[in-house]
Specification:
- The complex is a heterodimer of chains A (265) and B (790).
- Chain A is an alpha+beta fold.
- Among the domains of chain A are: 1-48, 2-Layer Sandwich (Uridine Diphospho-n-acetylenolpyruvylglucosamine Reductase, domain 2); 170-264, CO dehydrogenase flavoprotein, C-terminal domain (Enolase-like, domain 1), CATH 3.30.390.
- Helices cover 32% and strands 25% of the residues of chain A.
- Chain A contains 10 helices and 14 strands.
- Chain A has helices spanning 12-21, 34-39, 75-80, 82-87, 89-96, 101-106, 109-115, 122-129, 212-220, 245-264; strands at residues 5-7, 25-28, 47-50, 60-63, 66-70, 132-135, 139-141, 146-148, 151-152, 160-166, 170-177, 184-193, 196-202, 209-210.
- In chain A, the strands form 4 sheets. In chain A, strands 4-5-10-6-7 form a 5-stranded antiparallel sheet. In chain A, strands 11-12-13-14 form a 4-stranded antiparallel sheet, with helices on both faces.
- In chain A, strand 4 and strand 5 (66-70) form a beta hairpin.
- In chain B, helix 8 (375-393) runs parallel beside helix 17 (745-762), helix 13 runs parallel beside helix 14 and helix 16 (671-690) crosses helix 17.
- Chain B folds into 3 domains: 18-24 and 483-629, 2-Layer Sandwich (Aldehyde Oxidoreductase, domain 4), CATH 3.30.365; 35-140 and 204-254 and 259-285, Aldehyde Oxidoreductase, domain 3 (Alpha-Beta Complex); 299-468 and 633-789, Aldehyde oxidase/xanthine dehydrogenase, molybdopterin binding domain (Aldehyde Oxidoreductase, domain 4).
- Chain B is an alpha+beta fold and 790 residues long.
- Chain A binds chain B through residues 1, 40, 176, 179-181, 185, 241-244, 247, 250-251, 254-255, and chain B through 64, 124-125, 128, 287, 650-653, 691, 695, 704-705, 708-713, 775-777, 780-781.
- The structure holds flavin-adenine dinucleotide (FAD).
- Flavin-adenine dinucleotide binds next to strand 2, helix 2, helix 6 and helix 7 of chain A.
Chain lengths: 265, 790
């Protein structure tokens, strides 16, 4: 039977060393994705390196015009953080809509982003706000972080340490939940900062993506009416039991309109 | 206890069992760890249909901790999983009844079909061992779609080359056809009753133990009917003496039908426990439950309703294909026939009804009774059809129903049942009031201001519960009686233990039954304990399903309690030096009529066990009585439901905004428990209507909705605050409690109300039809399709 070792290091340097020395080891954050994968036998790492002993990875800080959220900050902490609620309420709302209470108390922003589930919520916010991903070795702009299905720009032994969100003028996230899992069947994050508009979509492709056509229309005028005759092509979108590609294509502009309305409210 | 007290019957007494459930001190099968416990895992087929070319267990046998490995080849000396009903086809031939092996022999017939049993020191080692079994398959094409199963060139079983298990019918076809010929209007509808996966919160589990000392077996198992399980297991599967097998169903965390049946895993464990010489435990993982618990519903139906110019129903014609799955589960053949077609009169005096049911085999998990069992399918097709007819004829849907209600009782339907009593007008009137139907237009306008479409839908259901008069059941194909047994044991101190053959797995019998007995004897509730679920304690039992426990099991207890009182009167007569006829039992005491001389219940109990002054010549000592109760008829709970939905036409998202239920359950023993049962039933019915849909891949037969990530169970926030009321009602005329049963009503009555409401909401969009589950995707597609047609 396969055995699994467990480490709980107390410095990032030690995490890095453990990860480098054992390519089959996996980082453990909130365990809300990795533990189910272990139980189902989808994953058989040699070791788990628990990030729970690193308080420096935890917490929300306002740094000038951006909000720095540590990788090990739980969804519940983000949802309830006074800073987040004040400066990016859309992000607090997003975090409050992830999973259920237990999942929000355990699951972390770093784990969610490193995992890059195609239907996860945070990727929409990271792309939709143009955030920067901080790791133990570099900073990665959101636009080059998500690479594909469960695939990111992180190197195998790279440690995500924090996310820096620039503060938007207006932002909103609208999630249409898949009825069974309640992950996003489609989720749309919009933001307006100066003249720059971002529209990021999750749930509809292999990973979160931006929609240029919607951004351009909204850049002309940030109003729901700007989107009236925009349709999305369905051909590259996800299709499953819960939504055809056409349905997802239909939902993207509908939810974007709603998000814009909310952002303006 | 001779002081008068208010009756407990009718009071919302708090549930006695809840203390242990909410404090985590319940004892479920998986909680039971026996000395020298071992654990089991099953190797299961990853294919829907395949020949087994070889099964190599050598590596598994050598794996750490593994004690034994068995395959179908080891089990050839024992029987297969038996079926409890025999249905005959129209041409008189018996249904096709293929063998259901405990472990696959030459073929596997659905994904999850067990192939090998691994017994190990730990569950982990058993599972690891299972992964080492090497099976070579010749994969065969799978029969998946029930509608086309009969036309498939593949056969699930050799003895049913066209995959048809039986073609059965009820009703007068010629008279029905003739009525259609003279109809002013005919409403036609094709519909699907979606396949459901039960998902009790506690998965199936078993722990089997053989004792060489007594040469006997004990099986702890998640069962709704331990005695039936014992009978089937001993007599039909293992061929062991019935008295050498004890079956215990301890606390069971929900069943909904799925734990009625004898399952292969349980039989394999009992068989293997003797060979291994140690107790063996198995608890299903949730994924195994999805693959192997008997599923529910799964019908494809066409229904036609003939009406005259006044909207009176002339005739109903129904043609149904019902999925049996890969093997016949214990009750399977009776669900789409006896429990479905015979309910098609509903609440209406339709003079002619004909229903044909074709049952087919497919390479999917077995399908059997699930909360409501056949009756939801009947109610759904009938109430959808009636509401469609109302729409077509521009008659208010409640009004069309009213015109056709049965008003005189007893009423014999054209499909074989005799309703003893009912008052359908009363529940309809009351529900219209409770649901504030008059306020609907204003609510609709308000929804429209928010860009939402609101609709209202109705459903008037009837069910046949209190299953069942044994002679009728026998005539309809049951291979067993359907009575219930009870025993009332009065202890020397006047405290009482009641043994019932009913089984509680969420229904609250320990409270309800105690209320009945406490009232009977004038005792406080705490003085009565209810025991169930153990063949070594309870004399016999047919178990709990079909909303039968209080109506049949409760009646058996009442009968036994009456015997106690009769005997008590004779003891009292002796002690009080009166004649038997002069003694009456009133307010907790045996009294000499017209005098103040009396003996308390406890005094008589003591006298029975300390018979110093006792009519020992005429009467045995002790105070303990058994009774068997066979109901003379089914009971017929009925009610009216109103649902209001809001639909977001831009996304297809639908939400039940208001749900009002008004039921006639006859007499009610515990209104709080009844309300809870209705709430649970409504949740499951709304779940079926909006969320739950089991899907197999049409080609491969893989279960696509094999986990809670894809199979959507209703959650609290999917449901509105229900408005639930039971009317004073029409007590059942033929059981001593006047009760009818309430466990399934919600699940039976609600799905058509939800879909009818959705169709009302979407009528302005041109949507005329919608199948369950009406997911956002389906609703959006229906709106788009209607738009394209314009
Ligand atoms: C019932 C349920 C419902 C859910 N619903 C939703 C939902 O609605 N929306 C949603 O978005 N998500 C949902 N999730 C997923 C949840 O948000 C997870 O918490 C998240 O996806 C993973 O975070 P985690 O902290 O639990 O990571 P873990 O499970 O511990 O790790 C996930 C992966 O990321 C890697 N990793 C973790 N931290 C780091 C790091 N700092 N650097 C590099 N790699 C790292 C791990 O090695 C692993 O591969 C749900 C989960 C469950 C169980």
């Amino acid at each position: 039977m396969p055995t699994l070792s467990y480490h709980r290091p107390s410095s990032i340097a030690e995490v890095a060393r453990l990860a480098r020395d054992d390519p089959d080891a996996k980082l453990l954050a909130g365990g809300q994705s990795i533990i189910p994968s272990l139980k189902l036998g989808l994953l058989a790492p040699s070791a788990l390196i628990d990030l729970g002993g690193l308080p420096e990875l935890r917490g929300v800080r306002l740094e000038g015009r951006s909000l720095r959220i540590g990788a090990m900050t739980s969804h519940a902490e983000v949802a309830n953080s006074p800073e987040v609620r004040k400066h990016v309420p859309a992000l607090a709302h997003l975090a409050a809509g992830i999973g259920d209470r237990q999942v929000r108390n355990r699951g972390t922003i770093g784990g969610s982003l490193a995992n890059s589930d195609p239907a996860a919520d945070y990727p929409a916010a990271v792309l939709g706000l143009g955030a920067e991903i901080r790791t133990d070795r570099r900073a990665i702009p959101a636009d080059s972080f998500f690479k594909g299905l469960f695939e990111t720009a992180l190197d195998p032994d790279e440690i995500l340490t924090a996310v820096e969100f620039p503060l938007p003028e207006r932002a909103a996230y609208v999630k249409f939940p898949q009825p069974a899992s309640r992950f996003a069947l489609v989720g749309v994050f919009v933001s307006l900062t100066g003249k720059s508009v971002r529209v990021a979509v999750t749930g509809a492709g292999p990973c979160a993506f931006r929609v240029a056509a919607l951004e351009q229309a909204l850049a002309k005028r940030f109003a729901p009416e700007s989107l009236h005759d925009i349709t999305m092509p369905a051909d590259t979108l996800n299709a499953d039991l819960h939504g055809s590609a056409e349905y997802r294509a239909h939902l993207i502009p509908v939810l974007t309109r709603r998000a814009v309305t909310q952002a303006l409210a | 206890m001779s002081s008068t007290r208010a009756p407990l019957i009718g009071q919302p007494v708090e549930r006695k069992e809840d203390y242990r459930f909410v404090t985590g001190t319940g004892q479920y099968t998986d909680d039971i760890v026996l000395p020298r416990q071992t654990y089991a895992a099953f190797v299961r087929s990853p294919h829907a249909h395949a020949h087994l070319r070889s099964v190599d267990v050598a590596a598994a046998r050598d794996a750490p901790g593994v004690l034994a490995v068995y395959t179908g080849k080891d089990l050839t000396s024992i029987g297969g999983v038996p079926c409890g009903w025999l249905i005959h086809s129209i041409d008189g031939t018996p249904m096709k009844e293929p063998k259901h092996p405990i472990l696959a022999e030459d073929k596997v017939r659905h994904v999850g079909d067990p192939i090998a049993l691994i017994v190990a020191e730990s569950a982990r080692e058993a599972k690891a061992g299972a992964a080492l079994v090497e099976v070579e398959y010749d994969v065969l094409p799978a029969v998946v779609n029930l509608a086309t199963a009969a036309a498939s060139s593949t056969s699930v079983h050799d003895i049913a080359p066209d995959n048809i298990c039986f073609t059965w019918a009820v009703g007068d076809k010629a008279a029905t056809d003739a009525a259609f010929a003279r109809a002013a209007h005919v409403t036609r509808l094709s519909l699907v009753n979606n396949r459901l996966i039960p998902n009790a919160i506690e998965p199936r589990a078993a722990n089997a133990h053989y004792s060489p000392a007594s040469d006997s077996y004990t099986l702890y198992v998640t069962s709704q009917n331990p005695h039936v399980e014992r009978l089937l297991m001993a007599a039909f599967v293992l061929g062991i003496p019935e008295h050498k097998l004890r079956v215990v169903a301890p606390d069971v965390g929900g069943g909904f039908g799925s734990k009625i049946y004898l399952y292969a895993e349980e039989a394999a464990l009992v068989w293997a426990s003797r060979r291994v010489g140690r107790p063996i435990k198995w608890t299903a993982e949730r994924s195994e439950s999805f693959l192997t618990d008997a599923h529910g519903r799964d019908h494809v139906t066409t229904a036609e309703l003939a009406l005259d110019a006044d909207g009176k129903f002339l005739a109903l014609r129904v043609d149904t294909i019902a999925n049996m799955g890969a093997y016949l589960s214990t009750f399977a053949p009776c669900i789409p026939t006896i429990l479905h077609a015979t309910l098609l009169a509903g609440q209406y005096a339709t003079p002619h009804i004909h229903c044909q049911v074709r049952a087919v085999f497919t390479n999917t998990a077995p399908v059997d009774a699930y909360r409501g069992a056949g009756r939801p399918e009947a109610t759904y097709l009938l109430e959808r059809t009636v509401e469609r007819a109302a729409r077509e004829l521009a008659i208010d849907p409640p009004e069309l129903r009213r015109r056709n209600f049965i008003r005189t009782f007893p009423y014999s339907t054209p499909v074989g049942l005799t309703y003893d009593t009912g008052d359908y007008e009363a529940t309809l009137d009351r529900v219209l009031e409770l649901a504030d139907v008059h306020g609907f237009p204003a609510r609709k306008a308000e929804s429209e201001r928010r860009g939402l479409r609101r609709g209202i839908g109705y459903s008037c259901y009837i069910e046949a519960c209190g299953i069942a008069p044994s002679s009728i059941a026998g005539a309809l194909g049951a291979r067993a009686g359907l009575f219930e047994a009870g025993e009332v044991r009065v202890h020397p101190t006047g405290k009482v233990t009641v043994f019932t053959g009913s089984h509680s797995h969420g229904q609250g019998h320990e409270t309800t039954f105690a209320q009945v007995v406490a009232d009977k004897f004038g005792l406080p509730l705490e003085d009565v304990e209810i025991e169930h679920g153990d063949t070594a304690k309870v004399l016999f039992g047919m178990g709990t399903y079909g909303s039968r426990s209080l109506a049949v099991g409760g009646s058996a207890i009442v009968k036994a309690a009456d015997k106690i009182l009769t005997k008590g009167c004779r003891i009292a007569a002796h002690l009080l030096e009166a004649s038997d006829e002069d003694i009456e039992f009133r307010d907790g005491a045996f009294r000499v009529k017209g005098t103040d001389r009396s003996k308390t219940f406890a005094e008589i109990a003591l006298a029975a066990y300390v018979p110093h002054h006792y009519p020992i010549e005429q009467l045995e000592p002790g105070l303990n009585e058994n009774a068997f109760y066979d109901p003379p008829n089914f009971t017929f709970p009925a009610g009216s439901y109103v649902c209001e939905v809001e639909v977001d036409p831009d996304t297809g998202a639908a939400r039940v905004d208001r749900f009002t239920a008004c039921d006639d359950f006859g007499n009610v023993v515990n209104p709080m428990i009844v309300e809870g049962q209705v709430h649970g039933g409504l949740a499951q019915g709304i779940g079926q209507a909006l969320l739950e849909g089991c899907r197999y891949d049409e080609e491969s037969g893989q279960l696509l909705t094999g986990s809670l990530l894809d199979y959507a169970l209703p959650r609290a926030d999917d449901l509105p605050n229900f408005r639930v009321e039971t009317v004073k009602g029409t007590p059942c005329k033929h059981n001593p409690l006047g009760v009818k049963g309430c466990g399934e009503a919600g699940a039976i009555g609600s799905p058509p109300a939800v879909i009818n409401a959705l169709l009302d909401a979407l009528a302005p969009c041109g949507v005329r039809d919608l199948d369950m589950p009406a997911t956002p995707l389906r609703i959006w597609q229906a709106i788009e399709a209607a738009r394209a047609k314009r």
